[in-house]
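Example 194, ligand 5-O-phosphono-beta-D-ribofuranosylamine.
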Amino acid sequence: ARLAILLSGRGSNMLSLVQATQTGVLQGLAEVVVVFSNKPDAPGLELAVAQGYPVASLPSQGRKREAFDAEAAELLQQYHPDFVVLAGYMRILSPAFIQPFAGRILNIHPADTHQHQGLHAYEWAFDNQLAETKITVHLVDEGLDTGPILAQETVDLRGADTLAEVERRGLAVEHHLYAQVLADLIINKQKRSC
Ligand code: GRF
């Protein structure tokens, strides 16, 4: 399967997915065909370049949502992705973007999307002193972290007494869950088309 990975920032989930295609659960199942950003200076883009992957960017700043999304979708369609994988892509998507990839856009959210949506999910878990939180991988619709849930995994937060430790534990789960969910999706899709 062909993966387009979209990011706006650091890119640690992008890197873990790239690694999974090289030597992990996505090996032989998926290839990253482009890493795209709405922020031309996103650190994650540089990481992708350093890994030798094709990158593309389109600045979203100052653009109207629908017009930007239509242009971004058109750009991405040139890479014929089977899945559009949001990895810290800090935008709510409009129908202009969702429609061409309907049912094939995934997001990872560092909380239970029934309990927390939007930014600062690890801060929310830390501030509320949660004993555990959840990482959610879901399909993307027009809402903010509202699409159908594909998988969740619990993060044990007992004894995590700094925000950095909460994030460290959460990201460790994010980094293996996202690749695993994609692998399962791709395998199921292959079975259905046999
Ligand atoms: C992750 O915590 C992800 O769950 C959220 O944004 C963050 C992106 O981090 N959607 P990174 O850029 O993948 O390191």
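Summary: The chain has six helices and seven strands.
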